[in-house]
Here is the input.
Amino acid sequence: MATTIEQEQLYPINPSTFHWMYVFRNNTIVSGVPVPYWNVSFNAAIFLGEDYVSLGSMNNVIAETKTVPNNAGVGIFNLQRFLESYTAPQYNNYLENSRPVRFHGVAGTTDIYFPIHVIDKYSQNDNCIRFVKIGANLNGALQPNLPAIPINGTATTSNTSLCFNGYIQSDFALTRIGKDFGFDYTNAYAPISPNSYGILSDAPRWSNNQTLQYAGSKEYGVISFFNQIFNDIEKPDGIEIVGFLSDGTTESFLILNIDANGGTTTLNAGVAQTAEHILFAGVFPGNLRQAHSQFAGWIQKGLDCYTFRLYKDKPAPIKSMSKSAPQYDVCIRCEGESPILDTWKYGERGECRYDTITACERANYGCERCLDHEGNPTGFYRWGPFGPCIYFDEEACIKANEGGGPDPDEPTIDYLSGAHKICLNCDTQPKGFIPIRITWLNSMGGWDYYTFNMKSSTQIKTKRNDWQQLEGSWNKDSWNPQGFKGGKKAFSVNTIRSITANTNYISEQEAQWFEFLINSPEIYIIEEWEAWRSATDIQKSYEKYVTPVLLKTSSFKRKTVANDNIIQYSFKFEQSRTLNTQPV
Here is the structure.
């Protein structure tokens, strides 16, 4: 009497608005042979939660539904409407004391919170993604006049899937294997190779899955990415930032994906928590300049563009120090006559006073804790002052370097995404136009950004509630005329502000990107970075940086160079908050 799953999700991760189709079959029960059943139905319980281990608990059942066998004798369930209500965008910083999310260096608390767009480094997610699995069984009655009850031996459970806040794009080609179908989001969006897109965005893809965006030197923004998909991908160890300075030089630094930065040093055992599966990272100029002094220095020196790229640490090959070229001071064998022939020295100018290379190395090297660019200790160790920061503890560092150190010529990281570029061209506007920075919820549940840097206009629309006021004074021993009384008065005034913003001339790829803006249910205006003075000032971030707006432009023409020669768009945004003046 076993119930079989005829159809379920082909891939382990899907958006909440996908076709969550499940088909169950039990020919023995449905056919009634050899034991007949009446009022047969297939029943499905939907388990949804953020903890993988306890997912099967009845506390995680969000809904139960049933259906009768169709003409093919199977029960078909579409669970999309149930699931799409249980994921949501990330609006504010994630709150966990062991993985503090910071803004201007101040950690978020239950009383101090801030928009996700302005975080310093990393943040986990609250409701962007959830574990899902389906438990099914059949109900039936042995007599036509009896109520249907669960039939023993018919229970089954689907595979566990991940459901994230998003929607599938209409031009995505679905893969079908057997009866199961889906879209491979892991290969399309996860950080798994140097040529991977790696981020949850709809921004146009150029060669090698790279993006090109523009921003001002004080403008905020975050990216989001899959930090884990069950055990299918490796956790990124950080983000590499490479700056291209105006003098033609390049500099770089790393943003480590560790607990102290709001990320995850080590994932929970197995695939425990959905909070770790999607991370947000502040990689736009406003975020980087408030969290990284090196980036602020780039701004002062002159920064044209920079790239960000997800990476994974890899162990460096060990090269014997006794044979390595003296690019920096290492232990080398002394040359000359006895008695110094069998001795070792530290560097070319060192004294020949060590009997063995090991004695030389241990006296002059050793494992030390790595520091970040601001001089703060990290969770990594390296061998000596020149070694790469690739060891998670001191013991591992010592064992790996018995008799030699890492080869400085070998790269110590593997890239997990393309190099996404951001160019700073939005500070100086033509004719002094004021830039308008817009963010919207994209199809992957993350946030995309665009700065409208051409002409913009603001319109104020008011609605007045008038009333007729009596002239003069009527509540005294005589009537007296009073100039401010009489005639019509405005009891209250409600004001709505709308902004019309224009793009510069853009490419066809950017034009297609705006289709996601038109379709987005969440749109905001983002204000610029400011130099805060104290933690008290930071509480102003609750209201200051994010203003919700409605997109009043309701139609969109996909322009091309062939048809339109040049491509430029105008959008109208309306503030969704009404300004209510004081009553009189």
Remarks:
- The chain has four domains: 4-90+128-182, 186-315+417-421, 318-410, 427-580.
- The first helix runs from residue 27 to 31.
- Confidence is low (pLDDT under 50) at residues 316-328, 403-409.
- The chain has eleven helices and 37 strands.
